[in-house]
Amino acid sequence: MNLFMEVSRLCREDDGILTAKARATSPLLKVQWAEKGIALRESLSALLQDLNASRNALTDQMKYLNVAWESAPPAASPVRVHVLPCGRLESTFYRDLIKLPPALVATSR
Q: What's the pTM?
C-alpha cells in the first residue's frame, strides 16, 4: 500500500477514536475506546519502524551515490554523464523515496 495512504488511514482512524472517546460518558465506553487506542498505537509504532527502516536504507543508498558523485570526472568532462549514477539516483528518488508506481516512473523518463 502507498505509504502516504497508510499514514492517512491511521491518522483518520486515530481522529475517529479520539472524537468518540471524548464523546463517551460511560466509564465502560471510555475503557473500550482506550483499548482501541492502544491497538492503534501499536499499528502506528509498527509503521514508524517501517518508515525508519526505509529511511535508513535510503540514507545508505545516498551515501553510495554521494561517493560516486564526488569521484566523478569534472563537470566539463564529456564522460561525466556516463560515469555518474544518474539513472540509479532517479530510480532511488522516484521509486523508493516517494513510492511512485513503477509504470509511472517509466513514463516520466
A: 0.59
13, pLDDT greater than 80: yes
For 46-79, what is each residue's pLDDT tens digit?
A: 988 988 888 888 888 888 888 888 888 888 888 8
Closest of 55, 56, 64 to residue 98, by C-alpha: 55
Q: Which domain holds residue 57?
A: 3-107
| Alpha helix (H) residue ranges in 2-100 | 3-23, 27-70, 80-83, 86-91
- Please tell me the total count of domains within the chain: 1
Rounded CA separation 63/65 (Å): 5
- Residue 71, amino acid: S
